[in-house]
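User: Quick sanity check before I run a bigger batch. Here is a single chain. Can you write out its predicted 3D structure?
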Amino acid sequence: MNRDEILKTNKHYWDAYADLWFGTTALPTYGVHFVTENELHLFGDVSGRKMLEICCGSGHSLKYHADRNAGELWGVDFSHKQLENARQYLSENGYNANLICSPMEADMDIPKDYFDFVYSIYGIGWTTDLDGTFQKIASYLKKDGVFIFSWHHPLNYCIAWSCDERRDVIENNALVMNKSYFDESYFRMPVDGSEILLCNRKISTYVNALAKAGFVIEQMVEQTDEATMQAEGNISDKAKKAKMLPISVLFKARKICSRYK
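Assistant: Done. Predicted structure follows.
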């Protein structure tokens, strides 16, 4: 599928529906039915640290770090509307950030060897060039800088509830494999009366791309939160699914060498 078409389609969706997603899936949250930063403490003390968020959305994760005395805030998003919301939200809370409207894959005027943290909360999967994006992120980080990102777990898109073929009714609480784990091709997903274009990358694809860009993985998390695991009775189908398999995945990686030009 053409990269320009993918970017155009996805940008159109986010420009049109940014308000609908205002403030969702932002720190301390890493994903729905997933452990949070309050439990994991992956960032630690960010006082005075330089922070760059990839797919910063409405700015709520940037505010999270600003509230914890981060030294410098930068954000990248390919949606003009998302950045308008982020700029207004941060301003209303007494903060400002260097915000750049661009696809993460593109060459941008971002300083090299500069940031202590680069992070992305449910945003990195929108890239059309994972290897290139990780290499760019490595170039932005200082040596020993940290890259943290969360995204859909690939199993989440491969496994679904078994439903009656005539009705949208779950049968026997059974989960079935409805898509090959090895299929990383792009697919169209209807959302909110519109559509987005996504691909479902394997865990090994992320691991290998990180290694190629000069990162060492310090932690990988695929853990449903305890409240969901203990929930019983009338809970959502998504919560039931999260009790059986990971909905999200999270990586913390450290830059150990420079492999960018």
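Residues 164-169 have pLDDT under 50 and may be disordered.

User: Great, the batch can go ahead then.
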